[in-house]
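[Q] Does anyone have a clean structure-token version of this?
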Amino acid sequence: MKKKKYDFSGWATRANIKCSDGRTIMPNAFKDQDGQQVPLLYMHVHDDPTDILGHAVLENRDGDMYAYCSFNDSPKAQAAKTAVEHGDVDSLSIWANKLVHNAGNVMHGVIKEVSLVLAGANAGAKIEYPVLQHSDGSFSEEPVEDEARIYFNQPLEFISHADDEDDEDDDDTDEKGNGAKSQNGPIDVKKVMATLTPLQHEAVKIYLGIAIEHADEIKKKAGGGSEKPSGEEVKHSDMRGTEMNVFDQTAIRNNQPHISHSDWRDIIADSKETGSFKKSFRAYLASRDDSAELMHGLMESPDIDQLFPEYELYKKGRPDYIKEKDMGWITKFMNGVHKTPFARVRTRFADNSDPLLRAKGYIKGDKKTIGGNLKLITRTTDPTTVYRKDVLERDDILDITEYNIVDWLYEVMKENLNETLAVAMVLGDPREEGDRERIDPTKIRPIYGDDPLFVIYRDIDTAAMAAELQGTDTTKYFGTSFIEAEAIITALRFAREDFHGTGTPTMWITPHELNVLLLARDRDGHRVFTSKNDLTAALDVKEIVTCEHFANQFRTDADNHKHQLLALVFNPDDYNIGTNKGGAITKFTDFDIDYNQEKYLIETRLSAALVKPYSVIALEKPAA
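[A] Here you go.
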């Protein structure tokens, strides 16, 4: 990494070291953040902008995450800098989220900030020699007198990862030592327990089990046994080294975040109304000023998740994926288009509309004259490459055993490719002109917007239809749906007089316009079309296919008038896709040794264009 001015450096996190919460950070869990800059804080406090002490630049070193840290000029930052230089603060901690677990291993995550902390949660944290700016302005990573590098072996925590020193607190039981007491006096534990549901009873049992287990561990470390001396009150660790009463956590030292017995009682009471102990517990945490510290203290225990039931996957196997728009029309269109085994396509037509080309009558003895010349109309379409690329971590491929993620990914990629191609062929690539990833419209020629030689453009005229139906008093008898439906049918019928496409065409229409047609009522309130089949017959089309992609599509004509697309009427066989040998959709796979990734590519090389004049009718309406 290029050397810049920074005040100290050290390990933000080390891999393959089991953390105090039972989790192990795997190598390269944060490798994607190599070179990124994150805030530097103190004890993960971020309530105010002045809490930011500076920043840390992350560096991935053989799977571990190293940090180059710089202090800003704020008073807090300078005080922290003095503490680091003096050796008073010798530990770092990270705050990370978006964690991906495999059993007890952290595979991926995102580091949001690095903090100076008083004591690391990992016993391997140590002080060595930092990189500091010397008096001559140079920088060095070698040991220099009066300079120190801070190394940190820090495990990962969801909120933060820093431990406080152990303290002992006073007891807070009643005079007889029989239980806990609140601000309002002694608590009748039996009555409180009697109000709990079976699930809440289980939660309390688990929490008490954690308390007793930690109490035993603390006593064993202190040289004592696990037996509780007569008359001694049961205590347990709050999972941060401090002993506290099982039922009354107000005995924790004043600055230690805790949950009192009355707090637990409120949480349990709220869970009866919400039906979720977990939801009530989370809501309680969110309401507290010290929720981040409290969450850290609780979540540091590897057993805390037992308080909450596990999530169950609703549907086993491969995940469904959200489709922005319905894809039904795409399959129908792609299956219906004409295909040629060559990609460079030339279309050629002779214009036979010149009156001079007509045959002539002959008068005996008179000289016969030559007619006009045929005008040839040609255009060529060259191929272009369209692709879809993706990547999978090989670790993920091996760890996901419930389904074949590679096959699933290929299906998603192919559907994405077909959607992109179909939209480009019918409507054009929606990306801005000049975008390097935009599909060239001269190589995959969109139907909508093509030359009037191929597409018959017709505006519907609702105003004229309203006047035709009932004069100026139309609204008294006919609704807008009926008028618009009649206008669409009329425009289509008249356009069919100029239509020269193959066979009976299909109508490709927006869902909204189809509903307008189907909802049309006559002056007696009866539906004009009782079914989609009735409408198909009235429009004289083979079938009606809805296309959500057609919504909000506009065209500007040669006179700079703007039109909104309602429907296209054509036979897909009049649209040709040309592909050379080997240009069909092909799959490629490559393995990146450096990043242990499998890379996947599907691509095709083709040309596409309408090949028959006057083979499409585009129904539009004037746009404001």
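[Q] Thanks! Anything notable?
[A] The longest strand covers residues 597-610.
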